[in-house]
Design goal:
By secondary structure, this protein is an alpha/beta fold. Helix content is about 40%, strand content about 10%. The chain contains twelve helices and six strands. It has a six-stranded parallel beta sheet. Strand 1, helix 3 and strand 2 form a beta-alpha-beta unit. Helix 3 runs parallel beside helix 9. The radius of gyration is 21 Å and the shape is globular.
Length: about 300
């Protein structure tokens, strides 16, 4: 019991500090191998010329993987192939999926880009690429997400990202073309890798950060429980869950920490006499089982 308490105490004592980019550990740079871990994700791209230009700049800067979410044009359109020049092979390699969560599977860092001039949720810390990208390269498989040419990423899509970034531009004309935005971000990442010192001796592997899908499962579990116990209400749940997302995304939760937190949620559900499969009815008195499910209790 003391060991579990110590883990919980350590986890919550770091929630306010792990989001500081100055405190993020930077792993030894390994050039092309690091950039190969960065996945460019384009949501509903509509212009074949943009896709061709993006393939070309990916080739220029050493990026290898990208995912098109519900693309509105054919990446093998002749305009795309012509614009890509020697990057046309990347057009053939582009993976197509239907939803943004599907595109983010396996990523431990997800950064979303935005160019809109508006008031964002106060929990978000909008950073420039130069401020944010050291953390993007620090932890393993990562995604850099770009929205459609006509609207950019919605707040719902940005909420799936661990950090939100914005390219600084002149206020008189701040709008960037999609291919330009991708090119600037690729250049910043490539420059960051090139400017790093020579690789240091191998270091012990850090604890494995939780991938996107594991965090999403935790957030779904947390929201369901908070609705069941009455802390959240349907009309305010979305806004409050943004706060919880920002809090835990800043923390950089590991796989073990997510398991620890979900163990707490399961025990709370048991104490309420309910389960995710059988939600507690509003007027029903909880009837606890004879004993908690020990197989679900974190050790």
């Amino acid at each position: 019991m003391d060991a579990i308490y110590d883990k919980i105490k350590l986890l919550f004592s770091t929630l306010g500090t792990l989001g500081d980019p100055n405190l993020m550990p930077i792993l030894p740079h390994s050039g092309p191998e690091q950039l190969a871990q960065v996945r460019l994700v384009l949501v509903q791209p509509a212009g074949p010329r943009n896709l061709g230009a993006i393939a070309r700049v990916m080739k220029n800067m050493g990026f290898r993987q990208w995912v098109l979410v519900d693309p509105q044009c054919d990446p093998l359109d002749m305009e795309a192939i012509t614009t890509a020049v020697h990057g046309a092979d990347l057009l053939h390699q582009a993976r197509k999926v239907q939803t943004l969560p599907e595109a983010l599977q396996g990523c431990v860092q997800v950064f979303g880009t935005t160019g809109r001039s508006q008031t964002y949720p106060p929990e978000w810390q909008i950073q420039s690429p130069r401020q944010a990208f050291p953390a993007l390269l620090a932890a393993g498989p990562a995604a850099l997400v770009f929205g459609p040419e006509d609207r950019g990423l919605s707040n719902e899509e940005l909420a799936l990202c661990h950090r939100q970034i914005q390219i600084p531009t002149n206020a008189t004309y701040p709008s960037l073309n999609l291919a330009q935005a991708v090119a600037i971000c690729c250049y910043e990442l490539y420059t960051l890798v090139c400017q790093s010192p020579s690789p240091a001796p191998p270091m012990p592997s850090p604890q494995r950060l939780a991938p996107f899908e594991l965090l999403e499962g935790f957030f779904d579990h947390l929201e369901a429980l908070l609705l069941q116990i009455g802390y959240l209400h349907p009309h305010t749940a979305r806004r409050k869950m943004l706060k919880f997302r920002a809090l835990f995304q800043r923390a950089g939760l590991t796989v073990a920490e997510v398991a620890l937190l979900r163990g707490i949620l399961r025990q709370l559900q048991w104490s309420q006499g309910c389960s995710r499969q059988e939600p507690l009815e509003a007027n029903a008195a909880p009837v606890p089982p004879t004993q908690p499910d020990s197989s679900r209790t974190p050790s």
